[in-house]
Design goal:
Number of domains: 1
Number of helices: 4
Low-confidence stretches: 123-133
Largest sheet: 4 strands, antiparallel
Number of strands: 6
Helix content: 40-55%
CATH topology: Ribosomal Protein L22, Chain A
Strand content: 25-35%
CATH superfamily: Ribosomal protein L22/L17
CATH class: Alpha Beta
Distance between the termini: 52 Å
Structural class: alpha+beta
CATH architecture: Alpha-Beta Complex
Strand order of the largest sheet: 1-2-6-3
Radius of gyration: 19 Å
Shape: elongated
Mean pLDDT: 85
């Protein structure tokens, strides 16, 4: 698994990504689409019982994001949901397999860049409510 990259934005979101994960993007997208737009605790529960290898990678990413949010102290961890999630294709490792009559077949070992954006419903709802109240008065 690649090194998690954590970027914090000022909009009440926490962005986490893992680059160069040795899993094909097609297989990783199945897992990421399963947990997209769900609450973090529900996603962790679902990933724990998913037998696919990509589930462990996404589970570690969510846990890393939650621990950094918890260390920050201004987040309500129970209200955190996965706002956005996507998988990009990383660099492909090319290997060769010897075949009959001196030929070789190319084997493509694909890698993925997995990105998650976690959002706290409480933090994002507070500024919107105040702007709505100001507009109604």
């Amino acid at each position: 698994m690649g090194k998690p990259n954590r970027k914090k934005e000022n909009h009440g979101t926490n962005r986490v990504s893992a680059h160069g994960v040795r899993i094909a993007p097609r297989k990783a997208r199945v897992i990421v689409n399963m947990v997209k737009h769900s609450y973090a605790d529900e996603a962790l529960r679902a990933l724990k019982f998913t037998p696919r290898r990509g589930a462990r990678v996404v589970e570690k990413l969510i846990e890393a994001a939650l621990s950094s949010m918890e260390a920050d102290g201004s987040w309500d961890i129970d209200e955190v949901r996965i706002a956005e999630a996507w998988v990009n294709e990383g660099p492909t490792l090319r290997r060769f397999l010897p075949r009959a009559m001196g030929r070789a077949t190319r084997i493509r070992k694909r890698t993925s860049h997995i990105h998650l954006v976690l959002d706290s419903s409480r933090k994002s709802a507070t500024p919107q409510e105040s702007t709505v109240d100001e507009g109604q008065e």
